[in-house]
Design goal:
635 residues, alpha/beta, Rossmann fold, 21 helices, 30 strands, globular, binds 5'-O-[(S)-butoxy(hydroxy)phosphoryl]adenosine, AMP binding, ATP-binding, ATP binding, AMP-bd_C
């Protein structure tokens, strides 16, 4: 018997030890007992980190939507699968039952097939947080198409880059979206993106805001009339365990975004098993993750993990501040939410508001609180614990990544004693280790180093779409035979992990992972700019904000600097998206560089963070004099 649901600490250690001693048996028992297969696997695991090649449950046949929907129909057909809470609090919430979800997924799957989408084709999904978003993921999975969701806050440029990188055939979008008191013209953004995307044959448009939009003859169609005509039955495509399920882009420290490829069986088993244990989900609980499905958190812990467990998962269309800062707490009271999963940046923003916003709502339904996306600082942790959890609901600080597919280091609620700012212990099957700069494993406790994982887990990304070499270089080259996370961490005296942050050029702003390169490229597109470098600096709410150092060309020097700042941010909005705008821009004559021409970001980071006294050794720079100048003009 597998230990599918872990109930106390002793049991956690026992299960953990078993998962390390005999990973193959451990995972095959879970896979066998809790999922539906058309054929079982020939091999549980085959792996080689030097290639790298990772195969889980090879030879098995399945369809993830049968596991997420069909198998629940007999016992839970009338249970709410997706509970949709609209942006406007006066619009009714929608309860989509498993039975109805089955019909709607099948109808959309049939529409996709009618438009020539087949197994292995890529479909780009650019939708707001409305039910059609979750349904689109599942409809693709139903017929074996690979979904590539692009967060609907990204610009047309970011969208076209992602569409072209994986040659998507179709885009599913909406006329527009609601965001607080604003509406956003999504279809307009898609139209601009598609000027540059020859692979797109069709665009299906959800009518969300009833706006007058342009429909390009022969390419664009409203979705609803097509759904109305489509059959509610669609046989699931039988997939191989290692067939790609989706591509999801994440920023790298250099170059274009990386299309992380996740495959079917391992991803399903791992997200389902982590969901069950990290949130201690019980039948009839109502679970809410506030992330957008455009990020991995939404893929794994709004859609696949919860539905594989037959759970009720909430989708919220709006924002925490609309119509006021009590909206999250109002929704928790309204739907009697039992598990609530959000990001530190939201917690910090809400903790700043009048306490009445939280206290006037009945939050007594809450059993588990979750945090994800960046380190949670001590102050935010305590506010979350005291004001929202009333000191009785454990906080699960879950560390993981787009690349890991599922939660890796986390407390289990009511099992693992929590410790503020610590993600605590590895989930069963996960073998973390800390490495020093010489590539040696750091043994013992009370140490810090670079966080690596020594052994494969079922939901790890298998490659970067179209660029396996980059996958190898990014994750498997820094440390031999180990997956390198890009994060630093420390391990305390009892073996708890605390994630200290990125050790590469990725900056996490409001929980969004931003690479420096694409933002610098956007800045450099400005005709008055010669060169630029961006770094993060601490920010009360966002965690980190962006600070740009910009060298102007001669033509720029004579221009009004504030106008230039606005134009630079406008460029960033167009090329990357508004989340990547710079809070501060300092114009400078030079950037500190090493002899090999590399910008010394460490120095720029310290200056932007106003830690001027600890700049360290600057003698290896070719131009040490610029450091003084930058210090004197810091903003
Ligand atoms: C990076 C991954 C995985 C879902 C959302 C982010 C940081 C994530 C934590 C945490 C400290 C965290 C890491 C990681 N991060 N969770 N609980 N404590 N840092 O996914 O966009 O791929 O970003 O987010 O730096 O490497 P992502």
């Amino acid at each position: 018997m597998s230990n599918y649901s872990i109930k106390h600490l002793e049991e956690y250690y026992q299960v953990y030890r078993k998962s390390i001693r005999d990973p193959e048996n451990f995972w095959s028992e879970i896979a066998e007992e809790h999922f539906m297969w058309h054929k079982k696997w020939d091999n549980v695991l085959r792996w080689d980190f030097s290639k790298p090649e990772i195969k889980w449950f090879e030879g098995a046949k399945l369809n993830i939507t049968e596991n997420c929907i069909d198998r629940h129909l007999a016992t839970k057909g009338d249970k709410t699968a997706i509970l949709f809470e609209p942006n406007n609090p006066n619009e009714d919430a929608q309860h989509i039952t498993y039975k109805r979800l089955h019909e709607r997924v099948n109808q959309l799957a049939n529409v996709l097939k009618d438009h020539g989408i087949k197994k292995g084709d890529r479909v780009c999904i650019y939708l707001p947080m409305i039910p059609e978003l979750a349904i689109s993921l599942l409809a693709c999975a139903r017929i074996g198409a690979i979904h590539s969701v692009v967060f609907a806050g990204f610009s047309s440029n970011a969208l076209s880059t992602r569409i072209n990188d994986s040659d998507c055939k179709m885009v599913i979008t909406a006329d527009g979206s609601y965001r607080g008191s604003k509406t956003i013209d999504l279809k307009g953004i898609v139209d601009v993106a598609l000027e540059d995307c020859p692979s797109i044959k069709n665009v299906l448009v959800v009518n969300r805001i009833n706006s007058k939009i342009e429909m390009k003859e022969g390419r664009d169609q409203w979705l609803q009339p097509l759904l109305d005509k489509a059959s509610k039955e669609c046989k699931a495509e039988i997939m191989d365990a290692e067939d790609p399920l989706f591509i999801l882009y994440t920023s790298g420290s250099t170059g274009k975004p990386k299309g992380m490829v996740h495959t079917t069986a391992g991803y399903m088993v791992y997200t389902a098993y982590t969901f069950k244990n990290v949130f201690q989900y019980r039948e009839n609980d109502v679970y809410w993750c506030t992330a957008d499905i455009g990020w991995i958190t939404g893929h794994s812990y709004i859609v696949y993990g919860p539905l594989a467990n037959g759970a009720t998962t909430v989708m919220f269309e709006g924002i925490p501040s609309y119509p006021d800062f009590g909206r999250f707490w109002e929704i928790i009271a309204k739907h009697k939410i039992n598990q609530f999963y959000t990001a530190p940046t939201a917690i910090r923003a809400l903790a700043k508001q009048n306490i009445d916003f939280a206290e006037k709502h009945d939050l007594s339904s809450i059993k588990v609180l979750g945090s994800v996306g960046e380190p949670i600082n001590e102050e935010a942790w305590h506010w979350y614990n005291d004001i929202i959890g009333k000191k009785k609901s454990p906080i699960v600080d879950t560390w993981w990544q787009t690349e890991t597919g599922g939660i890796m280091i986390t407390p289990l609620p009511y099992v693992t004693p929590t410790k503020p700012t610590y993600a605590t212990l590895p989930f069963p099957g996960i073998q973390p280790t800390l490495m020093d700069e010489n590539g040696q494993e750091i043994k013992g406790n009370q140490v810090d180093g670079r966080l690596c994982i020594k052994f494969p887990w079922p939901s790890m990304a298998r490659t970067i779409w179209g660029n396996h070499q980059r996958y190898k270089d990014t994750y498997f080259t820094a440390f031999k035979d180990k997956y390198f996370t890009g994060d630093g961490a420390l391990r305390d005296e009892v073996g708890y992990y605390r994630i200290t942050g990125r050790v590469d050029d990725v900056i996490i702003v409001s929980g969004h992972n931003l690479g420096t390169a694409p933002i610098e490229d956007a800045i450099n597109e400005h005709p008055a700019v010669a060169e630029s470098a961006i770094v993060g600096f601490p920010h009360d709410i966002k965690g980190n904000a962006l600070y740009g150092y910009v060298i102007l060309k001669e033509t720029g020097e004579s221009r009004d600097h504030n106008n230039l700042r606005n134009e630079i941010n406008q460029n960033i909005t167009e090329h990357v998206g508004p989340i990547a705008k710079l809070d501060k821009i300092q114009f400078t004559k030079g950037l500190p560089k090493t002899r090999s021409g590399k910008i010394m970001r460490r120095i720029l980071r310290k200056i932007a963070s106003r830690e001027m006294d600890s700049l360290g050794d600057t003698s290896t720079l070719v131009n040490p004099e610029v450091v003084e100048d930058i210090k004197n003009n810091v903003i």
